[in-house]
Amino acid sequence: MATSSRSRLPDTPAWKALKEHQRELAAVRMSDLFAADPRRFESFSVETPEMLFDYSKNRVTAKTMRLLVELAMEAELPAAIEAMFSGERINWTEDRAVLHTALRNPAREGVRVEGREVLPGVHAVLEKMERFSDRVRSGEWRGQSGKPIRTVVNIGIGGSDLGPAMIVEALRGESGARAGADGGLDVRFVSNVDGGDLAAKLEGLDPAETLFIIASKTFTTLETMTNARSARAWLVAGLGGSDTAVAKHFVAVSTNHARVREFGIDPQNVFEFWDWVGGRYSAWSAIGLPIALAIGFASFKELLAGAWAMDRHFRETPASRNIPVLMALLGIWYNNFFDCDSYAVLPYLQALHRFPAYLQQADMESNGKSVDRDGRRVNYQTGPVVWGEPGTNGQHAFFQLLHQGSKLIPCDFIGVVNPPRVLGDHHEKLMANFFAQPEALMAGRSEVEVRTELEAAGVSRERAEMLAPHRTFDGNRPSNSLLLRALTPHSLGFLIAAYEHKIFTQGVIWRINSFDQWGVELGKVLAQKILEEELVLLRGEEADLNGHDGSTAGLIRFFAAHRRGD
Ligand code: F6P
Question: In 139-206, where does DSSP find H-type helix?
Answer without folding.
Answer: 162-171, 195-202
